[in-house]
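[job 4471] stage=fold_predict status=RUNNING
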Amino acid sequence: MPDTIIEKRDRIIEEMSLFDDSYERFAYVIEKGKKAEGLPEEYKTEAFRIEGCMSNLYLVPEFKDGLCYYRSDSDSPITQGVANLLCELYSGHTPDEVLSVDPVFLSEVGITQHLSSNRRNGLSNVTAKILGYAELQKAKAG
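[job 4471] inference complete, writing structure tokens
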């Protein structure tokens, strides 16, 4: 049985707690971003681009079999790493589940503190897009 969204969040928090300090966690997120599978070029368009981000960041949502899925890509490993964490957390869940979890855990594990204000703004915009897409799918189903 797949993890619940709460179990995923808790697993990410536990994974991050293995590092001694927030700098190590941040380096781990950057490394994950470098290793993340990117998007095909046809998705790197204005339709999928996240506004307000210093780097080019793309978020592709998909709704399949009642579940939301998200994929991201960025030309910045930092941005890609953080966006990838969000996509990992929110993918594979119903719109209600997506809407039930606040991404505040990124602050709790010491990730957002190391982001510039522009990157924090971009992160907020990614989160808003993810939650907005879940809201849209919930409204369509209701």
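[job 4471] summary: The chain is about 55% helix and 10% strand.
[job 4471] exit 0
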